[in-house]
Design goal:
By secondary structure, this protein is an alpha/beta fold. It has 10 helices and 9 strands. Bound molecules: 2'-O-acetyl adenosine-5-diphosphoribose.
Amino acid sequence: MTDPDVKLPRIIVLTGAGISAESGIRTFRDSGGLWEEHSIMDVATPEGWMRNPALVLDFYNQRRAQLKEVEPNPAHLALVKLEKFFSTSIVTQNVDDLHERAGSSKVLHLHGELLKVRSERFDDLIYTTDQAIHLGDVCEQGAQLRPHIVWFGEDVPMISVAADMVKDADVIIVVGTSLNVYPAAGLLYHAPYGSRKFLIDPSDNPTSNVYRLTHIQENAGKALPVLVDELIGEYFPAALD
Ligand code: OAD
């Protein structure tokens, strides 16, 4: 039991590629990351899509197929435990479905989802699929299907929803993102004064100083379950006995 007068914190978790690294999904900017092997301009911009849509489809078909070979790791599972105790929302830059497969119920995807495709002409015609898509696969209006991914240079439709969530948070946990890509990286500017902010990232992520984050310099699979238990222990000491 917890004291009824104690106000429970609202928790927002901002996740990036690093949280899925231990599941076997490559990050983007680490050594060996995806952007070392593929040109962002070729596979993650509207211009790349116009120049060579087959190459772009192939890139995301490979990523979509890889989802069948990976599983959520202890970091994803720790967030499922967190939401059993606190109001917890996840804002992810990831396009995989590992948060959902782990069992998290409130997940906002800022950069789209690999398991969705949409019409290149009609933005609201969105379809769920785990299959490859090819040139000639069309929406019900006859327009080519494209990955449901936010590319560089495109609007991030959910950013204001995410900003409002951050404004309302008491605890913000950032996991496995280099915070290099705006507008997602700017979300922390909305953190309320006095909120507790953590960063879990094994690298010397310089943004921890910019945003005054408490930096836990560890892999997410190791550090996040520990942090989650610490937070639960603060408010529900009996729960961890
Ligand atoms: P990055 O590849 O830029 O950063 C990944 C971060 O995860 C780095 O800071 C790593 O140090 C950290 N990391 C690596 N292994 C980790 C582990 N086991 N546990 C915790 N952290 C770990 O990926 P993002 O910041 O997510 O956008 O990239 C943001 C966006 O850039 C992506 O959503 C994607 C990309 O271009 C689009 O494609 C639109």
